[in-house]
Amino acid sequence: MATRQQDNTTSGAESAAKLLTDNSRRIFEGDRTLWIIFTVLLVTSILVVYSSTAKMAYNISSKMTTTDALRDQIMFVVLSIPTIFIASKVDHKVFFRITPLFFLLFVGLTITTYFVGGTTNGAARWLPIGPIRFQPSEGLKIFTVMMLARSMESRQKTINKINLLPTSLRLRSDKQRKILRENTLPILGPVILACIVIAPAHTSSAMLIFIVSTIMLYIGRVKFSEVVKFVVVIGFIGAVGIASLAAIGIGRGDTASNRLTTWVNEWIYGGKANTAYEMSDTQLAMVAIRNGGALGEGAGHSSARAVVIHPESDYAYSFFVSEYGLIMGLILMLLYLWIFFRSIEICRHCRRAFPALMTVGLGLLITCQALLHILVQVNFFPETGQNLPFISRGGSSLLFTTAALGMIISVSRTNKLEELKDERRKTR
């Protein structure tokens, strides 16, 4: 009897060891659902970019043809494949160590764009690196999330008791200085710095960081009263800052103000227009969605690409619906929500706060950006210029978003390896 039990234990240990070895040799390690979603979105990206840029063939002033746009998008899709593989293989402990360095690097690069960067639609956002235009603010968004996750992990034992912001305006007192030194600057400092650096060129990206950071603070067990204080105080300071920049003509504050005014007028007065030339970009996007109907006009047959501004980037979702229909549009939206739900599930299996918060934060960053893009298309939010993750034309956005998804997959891979190791220990 004892011999049989020993044989069963040995067999179980060998089985667990074999599973551990097999799992470490798999090419597609980690969460399979995220791999599938990534593949579907990349294929969709190629279809959308190729079809939406067809009007370039008829635009004499355009320096790029449809073939050029397709070639560039395929190039970035090909580059995104090794990007996600590399990111998915790196352990989260490595991400923990390199986060401060890369955060400071991308802060510096983002500031550099204001002096030597390229300008698109009035915004200085790009650094030219050979034939590629590099957008460092996309990387800064990711590492801001990781910095917040990093700072909250080291304070998990007391984070539900501490004050994030000073409780009084008497900042010279030792108590208030201690709050600033030990809590405000380490936890909120990177978030505030990133928003300040990004806001002049891309106000909506700063707002996206602010929203994601707020949700992360709540998930990270910060007192609800402190989260509310953060939203009120920092939100008020940010709004005043953007309004001030707009008043003195610095950055894109005037653009944000005009977009907000247009959005409010359309809700109040209906935004009536007699011709397509009098319609706003958002109104044209809504017309495209309406023309698509339930099943769409068919791939390559959308009339929206002739009138919608930037159907390959800022209004990619409305163009997608116009070609493939509202049903496919809803499925596409569910894919982004699925990324967040998978992030939550992966977070629940983490044994440390950093990978858990990093996973949730990056999942939120991808999903919130997608939802923000979609809400603009149906006039539920003012125009932001946020592209549709993985699908809109653009190299920096695709590569950095791919890296973020790879980091999430990396955490899921580590979770599975740890579970297999536990199973192996139990069967010894």
Quick summary:
This protein is mainly alpha-helical and 428 residues long. The chain is 70% helix and 3% strand. The protein folds into 2 domains: 17-89 and 273-353 and 365-428, no CATH class; 92-258, no CATH class.
Describe the structure.
Helix content is 70%, strand content 3%. The protein has helices spanning 2-25, 32-52, 66-89, 92-116, 136-153, 174-198, 203-219, 224-248, 253-269, 281-292, 316-348, 353-377, 395-426; strands at residues 118-120, 123-129, 132-134. A three-stranded antiparallel beta sheet has the order 1-2-3, with helices on one face. The protein is mainly α. It is globular.
Shape: globular
Number of domains: 2
Structural classification: mainly alpha
Uncertain runs are 1-13
Cα(first) to Cα(last) distance is: 17 Å
Largest sheet geometry:
3 strands, antiparallel
| Strand residue percentage | under 5%
The overall average pLDDT, rounded, is 81
Radius of gyration: 24 Å
Instruction: Output the strand order for the largest sheet.
Output: 1-2-3
The percentage helix is 55-70%
Number of strands: 3
Which sequence of SSEs, written as H and E, runs from N to C?
HHHHEEEHHHHHHHHH
Number of helices: 13
